[in-house]
Amino acid sequence: MDPALLDDFSLEMTGKDVPGLEEARDSIPPGTRINITFLAGEDTGTRLTAARAVKRLGFVPVPHISARRLPSRTALEEFLAGLAADGTAGNVFVVGGDPARPEGPYEDALAVLRTGLLRRHGVRHVGIAGYPEGHPGIADRLLWPALTDKAAAIGADRFTGDVITQFGFDADPVLAWLEALRARGVHLPVRVGVPGPAGVRRLLRYAGRFGVGTSASVARKYGFSLTNLMGTAGPDRFLHALSDRYDPARHGTVKVHFYTFGGLRTTADWIARFRHGSERVSEERQTTRS
């Protein structure tokens, strides 16, 4: 595997994971981008506190904005103003969100992008979501127009941006989706979502929630069995498969985004070990060739 694939990886945490980030800080490279989710059970204060902590610890906070969870334009302005006051508004990730019905005026991420409020409050970089295996609540025929419209809005407002994908267990649909994305004229960097090491039961629970494919063949390819749910699994095989077939000319700029499921230290330590092992193998191959 090419170790460069893990250069500039990003991580995801919730607003309540600040103690875990404190514990993991020495295992995470300075300047790492850390996304902060916008969960229903967390208030604005919790999210702002988490963004401040990420910045204080030497990382780049990427607060999420969940369009359908915003009760009003005022709520969006207050959140952005709080980020701006703390110096944590430069990077955001805008997503539609889980509620079947919007809790306020914003139907989707594009509606938030079109408010003009992001740049007014100092946002410079906008992340948006991608779904290589589809979305359980959105028809496939709607996903591509939604993504291309968001990418166009990012370009029109002169933001930099990227696409962060939902995690999966199979590199094949991810690589095919990347080719389709580039064919549609979207050339934003993509951060491929990868689950950090976790128990198989937990992985399957999240997979079911997000519509991620978990057939027996996919499970075997990833490295776990659907008949033995007691173990843990890491994304070793997935990352090797992604790296082996990744072609910048066809797939564009690709990085990796880790969903940590609350295990920031576990994920950070796993990444360090995996990178070390990949670098050692790469050096041994170069020595053999020479």
From TrEMBL:
It comes from the Bacteria. Its cofactor is FAD. Pathway: One-carbon metabolism; tetrahydrofolate interconversion. InterPro entries: FAD-linked_oxidoreductase-like, Mehydrof_redctse-like. The lineage of its organism: Bacteria, Bacillati, Actinomycetota, Actinomycetes, Kitasatosporales. This is Methylenetetrahydrofolate reductase. One of its GO terms (biological process) is tetrahydrofolate interconversion. GO terms for molecular function: methylenetetrahydrofolate reductase [NAD(P)H] activity. It comes from Streptomyces corchorusii. Belongs to the methylenetetrahydrofolate reductase family. The keyword Flavoprotein applies. Keywords: FAD, Flavoprotein, Oxidoreductase.
